[in-house]
Amino acid sequence: MASGIVNAVFLQDQKLRQLAELIRLQEVRNMYHINFASLGDQLEYLRMANDNMASVNTLLDECNAVVAHHGSHPVRGPVARRILAYAEHCLNNALQLVRNYTLRRSYLDKMLDHHHQLFEALDGLDVSTQAAADDLVETIQEFDDMVMSYMRLSLNSFASAEFSRYLRNVGIGFDELVRSHQTKLGLSGSFEDLEEDQKLEVYASIIEASGRLTVLTRSDGPPPSISYRKKKPAYGSAAMHLMDIGQIIWDVYSSDHPITTATREALVFAAEAGGAALGKLVGAAVATQLTGQAATTLFVTAMGLVGGFVGGFILGALAGFLFDLIFTSGGQRPLPTDGFILYVAPMPNGNDIAKQIAYT
């Protein structure tokens, strides 16, 4: 493994529950510094933080129940244990990589739907032969390889630093970058109309061009895939995987753009009196001398949702909706700049907390 690579920390069951609780405590603490438009708004955002933690516990409980129910079955038992291990990896990504808890709500919703479809597939499995079970295990293994690769790619921005610098220097727009790789792959039409696995292929092409795949290099064989290979999207997996890869793509695109505390403070000020519409936040950010592609609605929105402005994130009940508008369309859909309220606040770093839990 190349020097300087940040290794991933994958927690299991009880430590994942501990991580979820510690993150929630910090999120709730940070919420008391937000001047919400109403008590109802404050309760809605508090409920979201609580629901996020509850979803972690619920999915782990459900997976453990499936293992307990099928564990002794010669065909279903190994599949059930495979689902549990995969769920733990997915939850690590949700808690460690998605710092914006309003965006994490959308990620967890997609994850829960995905795993409930896996539970149904397990219950309906043809156990008369081993073939159906082997196929399901192979499918889950491919999904799992993708999720673990996303974790490692997310933690190693340095590997694509030169590419990110090039993108900023030439001033290419995010939508232009996506369109160029779509064309390179011979995929016609608008990005939004592509199949989900095709969208992942386009984003994977950008990540490969960026050089970041070097962190997945192995001495014992080819690196794992970050898009569907043997299997097609199934069991609701693509919606969750698109959120994973969307965050990596945004980091590849944006990481060389200098973001200062002045921008974060301007956003906090703009939203301090009961929140603000997206258009107001964009205007406040651009006024801090953002230039080039950074001075666009898409950049400010995606940065605020995914990467944060020096630790300050744009929070909103519609965070997942905005994320999907950007990354399911390759940055080509216009974003609504009014009509709903957003807030700005710091969010805890789940990866740092996970390391503390793992090594204590």
TrEMBL record:
> Is-annotated flag, keyword Transmembrane?
yes
| Keywords, sorted A to Z | Membrane, Transmembrane, Transmembrane helix
Q: Which domain of life is it from?
A: Eukaryota
- TM regions (residue ranges): 298-323
UniProt name for this protein: Uncharacterized protein
The organism encoding this protein is Striga hermonthica (Purple witchweed)
